[in-house]
Write a structure and sequence with these properties.
Residues 26-126 form the Gnk2-homologous domain. The protein is an alpha+beta fold. The chain has three helices and three strands. It has a three-stranded antiparallel beta sheet, with helices on one face. Residues 17-23 and 111-133 have low confidence and may be disordered.
Length: 133
């Protein structure tokens, strides 16, 4: 009887902890303030391009698939899922790096936990922040 109970508890724990939750698939949340604009070329735009290049390379080559960095007052974090390969991480981060540079070259990005991304098509690996106001 005790062995049967232990087996049921183990099976229940395995089921609970192996089930994928909705939040695991949720995109990262960022807020793009509309009040801050930068002229082209700006130190922020230059720092952002350098930061994204650095983050995509270091995160994909890190054993944890995670990297943080800063250039000037521009801060960033790149992270891939821990079950991804280095190649998959690079495949995911590189297009996003170019997409961010095309779509958001003049505004800083700030993480805000309550506001989702405007597009569900963007993958969740990059978090960027700027100390500029």
């Amino acid at each position: 009887m005790a062995v049967h109970t232990v087996f049921i508890i183990q099976a229940a724990l395995l089921l609970i902890f192996s089930t994928k939750t909705h939040s695991q698939n949720a995109p990262i949340l960022i807020n793009c303030p509309t009040t801050a604009n930068y002229t082209k070329p700006s130190p922020f735009a230059t720092n952002l391009a350098l930061l994204l290049t650095n983050l995509t390379a270091t995160a994909a080559n890190s054993p944890t698939l995670f990297s943080t960095s800063f250039i000037g007052s521009t801060y960033g974090l790149a992270q891939c899922r821990p079950d991804a390969s280095s190649s998959d991480c690079t495949t995911c981060l590189n297009p996003l790096r170019f997409l961010l540079l095309l779509l958001l070259p003049l505004r800083p990005l700030r993480r805000h936990p309550l506001r989702p991304l405007p597009s569900p098509l963007l993958p969740p690996p990059l978090l960027l922040s700027s100390g500029q106001r």
